[in-house]
Structures are given as structure tokens and as C-alpha cells.
Amino acid sequence: MALNQESPTDVEKTMPPAPTMDPKSELESDKSGTGNDFSELEEKKKYPSGFKLTVIVVALCMCLFLCGLDQTVITTAVPIITNEFHALEDIGWYTAAYLLTTSAFQIAYGKLFTPFNIKIVFLIALAIFEIGSIICAAAPSSTVLIVGRAIAGLGAAGMFPGGTLILVHSAPLERRPALLGITTGTFGIATLLGPFIGGAFADSVTWRWCFIINVPLGVVTAAVIAWFVHTPVHPMYRQWTVKQKLAYTRLPEIFVLVAALVCLVLALQWGGAIYPWSDGRVVATLTVFSVLTTVFVAVHIFLPGYRTVPTEILRNRSMWFSALFAATTSGAMFVAVTYLPLYFQAIKGASALQSGVDVMPLILGFLVMSILAGIITNITGYYNISMLICPVLASIGAGLISTFSVDTPSPQWIGYQALLGFGIGFGLQQPILVAQTVLEEKDVPFGVAFINMMQMLGGAVFVAVAQNIFQNKLVNQVSVAIPEVEASSLLEGGATNFGAIFSEEQIAILLPIYSDVLNEVFYIVVGLCAATIIGALGTEWKSTKKANTAKSDKA
After folding, report:
1. Which residues belong to any copy of the Major facilitator superfamily (MFS) profile domain (predicted)?
2. Residue 345 forms part of a structural domain
3. Residues 102 and 463 sit within 8 Å (Cβ to Cβ)
């Protein structure tokens, strides 16, 4: 894969070296208003304060609120969307498309933020997210909605890391932990409120408001960031040409990875459900996935100059096992959050808003235990403890959820969800701490982006697997139990629109089948929760306290 007929090594040779510049001259440059200042002395760097800092933090909170909201707001609205578009077969795509582009472009944004101006890249990402949201809000068909979700995910991939970097450039070191706590806390609150908000919109106005709400908040955020934020570029990168900066980002290699992942998800969605596994389209997508993945891996092995993933990460055992842990825990969470509202609406007859209330035990359990896991890690210095608790609690909770039936009473489905949330909450954020602990300081940003990518990728892949199983099993079992009705009409009718297709007697037969099929989807959650033990056991025991001390001494 050539970059304008130059290898990265050749490009790097042509890149101008960083100029010798003392801090005083840097600060003078800041006063001159060049817009590209950089100070190596943290304590002498000028940061916004008072009203200006407050406005920036509020804008970043709105940005992260959008990121958190977009992950869960659609979950309770999906059954209604499938009813409107007559597209039950697309239920997994509404989540998978968003997660796929979000995961695939995590690394790309991690590279783009280094040589390019952080503010500009962030605003471009926000604009892409807004365009995707507008497409979703105006979507006339299920296909257009899926495309809009994919575009929104492409923008969201740069919003969270970009917002964090903007905060780093807007607040002194001693104030960052508290401000980061506020902004990331906003993300958690949005995730919690998402099912409520989505259900309320779907029931009272229209599900399209799940995406319309992004537009005014995004515009306000963009205006504040554009006006008040100033993000310096390192002197070395200032002198690079656009060609040199693009060579540094390794975008062609990243697009190869994206194409491979798209082919994988397509194959998982199609195979056995829409087309037979032997169908040429399924075989072709799997073949392209295999070829592109082989090329990507071969480049990292035989052409070090073209590597997208740093060598330090490739050779780090803990990073690979924690990445596996991240993919399995995140996959379990996204499958559960996607299909539990369907259980409550289709089987229990809940409204969209009520189904948002019904999944709160899972989300609240997750948030509470995420906080407790952080406290435990802070006290003991070891993230491994929480990583080992995760598979135990989560596997039990997921196993109990897979026993749901038409008549499951509320005390049981509340307790089972809470137990699953407790388990996943203990583990989901620990891989981020692993990256911050086992990597050198210079590799931490990319390591965190790598973990974030694996979390989103786990969600995209396993939601696709869940959709395949759900659709395939539902059609097959309904065809046997109710042969007088074309089973495919159930997919065309939507997730909960049974009355237009089946009689009351047939619905009485259908609901237990529907519930059993959902349980087979929940078996995926059980398997993923159990598989997290592999990542937990493979991650080395390393004290976060000792690692932080060593890095401080080295600095």
C-alpha cells in the first residue's frame, strides 16, 4: 500500500525537525496571536478561566451528552421504527452501523489529532455527526436510517477523544481530574437517560426526535468551541505539509481495516438469515474480509514502516488480553441493551417509555458498580480484582436472563438485570486502566483509542451475530408452529405489530416462541460474559500506584 509512492520512512526523512525554541519565545508567540502556540512548560501555559472556562466545560458536557445519548436513545425506539419501516430484519443494523464506524475510526482520529489542529478536527467530526443525525431524522426508509447511523458514528468516533483533548488544552493539570469527572459523568448520565428519552419521544411525538435533538445541542457546542477554544500545534507539526501529515496518519491502512470490518459485519448479518451461508454474496464478503485482514496483519509483521498500531502495543500481552476483555464485555452489554427493550415491548406489552424504565436495573447496576470498581482499584492499586469479579457476576446474571418467559414476574427480571449490570459494571472500564498502566506515557493515547475501538467493535460484531440468530430462529420456528402464515411477513410487519398479521389464537402461540428466540439471543450474552475470564486471566498483575510513581520519577 503506497502513499504517493513514498514509504513512511522516506516521508519522515523529509519532515523538518522541530525548531529549537525556548519557552519564553513560545509565550511571546502566544501574545502575538499566531494561533499555533505551544509551551513545553505546563506551569507557564496560559489557560482560560472564569466565565470562558465555564462556557467551554458546559459545551464539552453537551458534546459528551450527545455521545452518550446516541448510544442508548434508540434502543427503546427500535421496535416502533421497525413497525414503521416494516423492517424487523434491520433491527441489529441500527446499532451495528453506528458502532462499526465509531470503532473503525477511533485509530484514525487518534492519528489525526496529533499533527492537525485539534479544534479543527473536532469541529469536522462534530459536523459529520450532525449530518448523520439529520439524515436519520429525515430518513424515509430503513436503509437511509442505517446510512445515517453509520455517518453519525463516523463523527462520534472523534467527538469523545477530541473533547477530552480540548479540555486538556483548556485547564491546568491540577484542575483536569475534576473537570474530566464532570464531563465523563455527563456521558454516563446521558447513557442512563437515553432509554427514557428515546421512549418518551417515540410514544409522545415521534422517534425522529431522538436525532433532531442532536442538532441544536451540536450547533451550540460548535459555536462555543470555535469561538473560545485555542488548541496549539507542536512546532514540529506546524512545519509539515498536508502531504506529510496525511502520511503520518496512515489513513490508507485504516481504510483497509474499515473495509474488512464492514465485510465481516455484512457476512454475519446475511449468512443463514437473509442468504444461505453458501450464497455467493456471503462467500464473497467473507473472502474479502479474510484477504484484507491478512494484508493488514502482514503489513504489521513484514513492513514495520507502515504499521498503524505501535510496536509497543503489538508486543504487550496485557494489551491484547485486555482488548479481548473489552470486546466481550462491551459486546455483552450492547446485545443486552438492544434486545431487552424488545422483550418488554413484544412479550410484556410495554410502551417504548415503559420499556426504558424496565431496563433501568441493568443500566443503574452498571453505573453503580463502575463507580465501586474504580474505588476498589484506587484502594488496592490492581484492576485485576474487578476484572475477575466481572465474569462471575455477569455470567450468572446473563444466565438468569436467558430463562425469561412470557410469565416472568417483575422481581425476577429486575434482579436478573441488576446482577448482569453489576458484573459488566465491574469490568467494562478496567481495560482503559490497563492501557494507562502497562504502556509508556507516549503510547497511552493510542492504547486508550485501541481499547475504545475494541469495545465498539465488540458491540458491532456481536449485535450482528445476535440479529442473525434472532431472525433465523424466529422465521424457522414460526414456520413450523404456524404454517398457515408466511413467517417472512413477521419480519416485514415490525417488532411488535402482531395484530396486523396474526389472529389472537396465533398470537398466543407466537409469544412463547418469540420469547424462546430472544432467550437464544441472550445465550450470546452468557457466552460473552463467560469468555471475559480469558481476558481477565491473561492480563498481568501490575500495580497502578507503582506504575504512576515510576512514570512520575521518569518524568
Report:
1. 56-544
2. yes
3. no
135 close to 147: Cβ distance less than 8 angstroms: yes
Please state, in angstroms and rounded to a whole number, the distance separating the CA atoms of residues 87 and 104: 26
CATH at residue 331? 1.20.1250.20
194 Cβ neighbours under 8 A, 6+ residues apart: 68, 69, 70, 71, 72, 73, 74, 75
Judgement on whether residues 344 and 224 belong to the same structural domain of the protein: no
Which structural domain range is residue 449 located in?
A: 315-555
Residue 258 and residue 125 share a domain: no
Of 307, 325, 355, the one marking the end of a domain is 307
Sign, CA dihedral 542-543-544-546, equals: negative
C-alpha cell at 176: 483536569
**How many CB atoms lie under 10 A from the CB of residue 355?**
28
pLDDT in tens, the chain (555 residues): 333 333 444 444 444 443 333 333 333 333 334 444 444 444 556 777 788 888 988 999 998 899 888 888 888 888 889 888 888 778 888 888 898 888 888 888 878 887 888 889 999 999 999 999 999 999 999 999 999 999 999 999 998 888 878 887 787 766 776 777 677 778 878 887 888 899 899 888 999 999 999 999 999 999 999 888 887 766 667 777 777 777 777 777 778 888 888 888 888 878 877 788 888 888 999 999 999 989 888 887 777 777 777 777 778 899 999 999 999 999 999 999 989 999 998 898 888 889 888 999 998 898 888 888 888 888 888 889 999 999 999 999 999 999 999 999 999 999 999 999 999 988 888 888 888 888 887 777 778 788 888 888 898 889 889 988 988 888 888 888 888 777 667 766 666 677 677 788 888 888 899 899 999 999 999 999 999 999 999 999 888 766 555 555 555
Residues 6+ apart with CB under 8 A from 316: 438, 439
CB-CB contact of 115 with 240 (8 Å): yes
Neighbours of 12 (CB within 10 A): 13
140 shares its domain with 264? no
How many CB atoms neighbour CB 442 within 10 A? 10
Q: For residue 188, give Cα distances in angstroms to 183, 416, 432, 522.
A: 9, 22, 16, 24
The DSSP secondary-structure symbol of 324 reads H
Beta bridge partners of 275: 271
The answer to whether the beta carbons of residues 393 and 368 sit under 8 Å apart is no
Provide the whole-model pTM. Answer: 0.80
